[in-house]
Amino acid sequence: MGAKQHTQHHKIYQLIAANHSGKLTHYHLTIIHPCAILLLLMVVVAAMTSSLAASHYELHLQPPAACLPREREALLAFKRGIISDPLGILDSWQDGDDQAYCCRWRGVWCSNQTGHVIKLQLGSTHDGGNGEYLVVDTDTGTALVDTHTTLVGEISLSLLALEHLEHLDLSWNYLEGSSGRFLGFLGSLKNLKHLNLSGIPFVSTVPPHLGNLSRLQYLDLSHMFQATITDVSWLTRLMFLEYLDLSWVDLATAADWAHVVNMLPALRVLDLSHSFLARRVN
Model confidence over 144-165: pLDDT tens digits? Predict the structure, then answer.
């Protein structure tokens, strides 16, 4: 850069202004080269980016939170209620040296921040793993679940210890227990947002306790053999419900079901197929 150009970019301007005392004051303003400003901004941005990247790297180096002892015991108690597990779904659920890491057990998800169990995904698929698909009796809605590929037993009360559970999927398993009755205590898992009990062979009335699940967004009770719902008013308390599947559930004696469904402001998906609504006496 020539001497003349250098002088122009660093020229000193003399400003004259009157101060409060009436005297003249001389201010000097140095004009900085635009390239210098740009370079300074680039240095600042690079430093901030480097700092954020380091923080992100350190965060991901941290090991996942270990699940809490009380919740680990609850999972093990649930396993003790299973009398048949032909596919070894729960084989990784062991009370051994790695017991602090039950968040790594199959079907278990925990919060990375708190270690609380937030998701249980133990639902069976419609393909039993041997190419054998589940069959539904079109006259009764009875699902012919292959017990050689599903969990058999009962749903333990120990699940109540999972107070932070948000997602529970036990679908298409024989988990009705000896009584075969629907388990109303599930209505106490008040943080649940997703509940799938489809295909479990309950033969009783679905209790209104599920209305306590005020955060629920997804509810699938379909293909529950001979389960019936005589009172649907509890659904009106599920203001965040977006998905509701009651197909192959007997709603023949459920009064005002249409009015109740219309009161669900967030509902996007509704399946009432084969719910015997035609039987209802007006």
Answer: 555 566 899 999 999 999 999 9
Residue 244 near residue 232, CB atoms below 8 Å:
no
* Burial (CB count within 10 angstroms: exposed 0-12, middle 13-18, buried 19+), residue 155: buried
Of residues 257, 130, 151, 270, the one with CA closest to residue 199: 151
Residues contacting residue 62 through CB under 8 Å, at least 6 positions apart? none
Q: What are phi and psi of 265, to 5 degrees?
A: -65, -25
CA–CA distance, 82 with 209 (Å, rounded to integer): 24
Q: Say if residues 174 and 145 touch (Cβ distance below 8 Å).
A: yes
Please give the C-alpha separations between residue 272 and each of 32, 38, 172, 251, in angstroms, as whole numbers.
Answer: 73, 64, 19, 9
pLDDT tens digits for range 80-136:
999 999 999 999 998 875 556 789 999 999 998 899 999 999 998 654 344 343 444
pTM: 0.72
Q: For 234-261, what is each residue's pLDDT tens digit?
A: 999 999 999 999 999 989 888 889 999 9
Residues 6+ apart with CB under 8 A from 185: 157, 160, 209
Q: What letter would DSSP give residue 177?
A: T
Distance CA 240, CA 215 (A): 6
